Amino acid sequence: MSETRLKSKARTYIAANVPKVFFIAFLYVLLTTLILQFSFSLINFIGREEFLDRIETGELISFSMLFTTFSTVGLILALVLNILRPLANAGFISYCMKLHRCKETNYKDLFDGFAVLGKVFSIFIISSLLIIFWSLFFIFPGIVATYKYRQAYYILFDDPKKSARQCIRESSYLMKGNKIDLFILDFSFIGWHILNIIFIVATQLPFLFPLLSIWIYPYVGMTRVGFYEERVKNLAT
After folding, report:
1. Backbone torsions φ then ψ of 70, nearest 5 degrees
2. Do residues 45 and 234 make contact, with C-beta atoms less than 8 angstroms apart?
3. pLDDT at 185 over 90
4. CB-based contact 153:123 (threshold 8 Å)
5. Domain of 193?
């Protein structure tokens, strides 16, 4: 795998689809940002001063006390709202795959996850539980598990007829010997993510809107699709 080559190809695809790619990225970033912001705003404290006083005095906070500290309705609504995040992420993956394969794209691709809603949720829940399980043994097995199941959504959109478990199994097989490569690829974007955080803090945009993400998300998304395509190609040869 050539990290430089994958990134170069991603930039080429993006350049060929400007400004459309940035408009769709804007919609995706706006959607995920609003979900996150509204989720935080829905969780309202009841007896906030009492809660903070207990923390300052070092009093042990029980689960029941923590739960009753929050607005139950707000908490439920926040959880329901966050259900949309895996769907939005899956939709953006589908869009990047179509763009990488030179297919016709539009903003409706962001909602492709709804066409396989049950499988998207199943992949999200099963992979999350497996990652949590392996994380119990230490942080490193949890990180390995995270990368082990990273290709499941790509496999699903390649063949929507496959079950969630089949996508997870095939992702595990596809990532054998390739986890460290994807980790290095992800880490190579850390400078962009840090710059994005600095930009948010410096500009103090409404809703902490990550404006630089309009460039970063397509760049990272297209590069990851390129990684997936090469893994599938190498497996077939």
Report:
1. -95, 155
2. no
3. yes
4. yes
5. 3-34+84-236
- Which one-letter DSSP state was computed for residue 115? G
Q: How large a percentage of the chain has pLDDT more than 90?
A: 60
Say what the pTM is: 0.83
Q: What is the pLDDT of residue 52?
A: 59
Residue 29's nearest CA partner among 223, 211, 234 is 211
- With respect to residue 180, please indicate whether it lies within any of the assigned structural domains: yes
Q: Answer whether residue 46 shows pLDDT above 50.
A: no
Task: Say yes or no to pLDDT of 62 above 80.
Answer: no
The answer to whether residue 146 is domain-embedded is: yes
Number of folded domains that form the chain? 1
Q: Radius of gyration (Cα) for the chain, nearest Å? A: 20
Identify the CA nearest to 85 among candidates 41, 33, 43.
33
Are 152 and 128 spatial neighbours (Cβ–Cβ below 8 Å)? no
What single DSSP character describes residue 62? P
- Compute CA distances 192 → 147, 177, 198, whole Å: 21, 27, 10
Cα 154 from chain centre: 13
Give the tokens for residue 55: 């923390």
Q: Is residue 64 part of a domain?
A: no
Tokens describing residue 79? 């959880």
Q: Which pair of tokens denotes residue 54?
A: 């207990």
Q: With the C-alpha atoms ordered 4, 7, 13, 19, is the resulting torsion angle positive or negative?
A: negative
Q: Confirm if 168 and 123 have CB atoms less than 8 A apart.
A: yes
Q: What is the DSSP letter of 212?
A: T
In this structure, what DSSP letter does residue 1 have?
Answer: -
HSE of 234 in the Cβ direction (CA atoms, 13 Å)?
Answer: 13
